[in-house]
Request: fold
Amino acid sequence: MIEVKGLYKTYGINAAVRNVSFTARKGEIVGLVGRNGAGKSTTMNIIAGYISSDEGTVTINGHDILKEPVEAKRHLGYMPEFPPLYNEMTVYKYLHFVCQLMGVPKNDIRDHLKDIIENVGLVEVQNRLIGNLSKGYRQRVGIAKALCGNPENIMLDEPTSGLDPKQIVEIRALIRSLGKKHTVIISSHILSELVDICTRLVIIDRGVVLADDTVEHLLSPSGSGRVLELAARDGEDLYAVLANIDGVAEVKKKKPYNGAPRYYITIKPGADVAETVSRAVAQAGATVTLLRPVEHSLEDVFLELTEAAMRKEGKDA
Amino acid sequence: MKAIFRREFESYFTTMIGYIFMAVCMLVCGVFFTSTNIIGGSASFVSVVSSVSYALILITPILTMRSFAEERKSKADQLLLTAPVSITKIVAGKYFSALAVLCVTLVVTLVFPIALYIFGNPYWGEIVLGYIGMALLGATFISIGLFVSSVTENQLTACIVTMGILFLLWLSDTLIPSLSDNTLYAILSALSLYGKFSSFTEGTLNIAAIIYFLTMTTLFLFFTVKAVERRRWSKG
Reply:
């Protein structure tokens, strides 16, 4: 379990991270989402104890990263954005060294490494020098590095960058299986990937956490901003009818659907209006040809949140 | 720490650095051995010892330049700094690996005194003292080099700055006798590494000198630990 509370980090006058807090529990795969430079890597580096925060605390399995660094780090396998590799070592020797650092008992290292090397798909390159490996393989060595010592918490910064499509599928499957027994934090700017793997998402923009929720919640049309799509043929213009229904926040006219006028109906939080809407449409003499909730994509959610944050900041300023 | 020590030591010999260091050391030894002992027909090993001690100014920076600077640049330092190992152990591992390379090199140069023993009648006390002196001087140089490497981000900078510091320390020795200012005299003679080293080549086992070198080494290793720690808090 990783607990992050109130992290602040400034570089000169630039705030890289502002009041970042979240918790990742066992069995969760938490995705850190954000644009380039949003503060994902800084946050991860602070969690891993590579850099310090100006304020705030990080505890890993109950151990504070600053007060008990060695204990805390023992429970964390971290792959930074650029895997820290030694080019003059072979893959096997490097991973062996990492196991020693993580405190794996000498007699267990061989079997432990055999599993990891098979899982990450490094069998054929294990005796090659890291300096001669391609980007994809280097990335995989980085992932293998994070697994050494079987830590309860695993943190991967952009794990699939530089991999080919087949490798991406394999690594995603690996991360999903890790998520069952470990606490996993991954970051990515490929949003569809995170929706695929993660159970929970923390959206960060310009150093601030904009949302921290399960993937279902973030993407489901329930909650604020739930939208119904309606198309109805025949009958009069329904705009006024729809706008007057109790529980409807806003109605927008869209391009016709199969020739029938189409509307986007934004519903107030907690309201359930599907039945009322269909009845009202029938009373107005029209026939419903389409009525369905509009699915948000993570891209929509992300853009909406970041734009809202920017507007708010603009007002504050 | 043992794992770090082993990895660093092996890396000296999977890259060119360890070999270059040994080769230069052997070359210097060989040249002075040839000129004084073989051609000059002397059985004294002192001139070889003092020439190697000057060569250390040029070659120890090669040993230490990579240790922190290069790793910081390539971000490989993230491996050690996020591993469950204290910074003191990281510094110790790196320090002792460099020291081990120096010691191995010194052991290899023993072929020269052994040759002296076979063909002549050397004075062993002088040779043993010379080796103790070289090891202590080298150990101090390495700690200075390690410290410089920990505050720079480029191995070439680390190398040149270390060389500069060691060179200045050596230069200040030549200034000391002609100084009239008492304070400056006191400061420079306190910093004078070669002043302390000369007691070994003069054939005396000076405990104060041994303690001096060990203290300097510990001090610079302490600075190194602090410098690595400080980086975490940097705003740059």
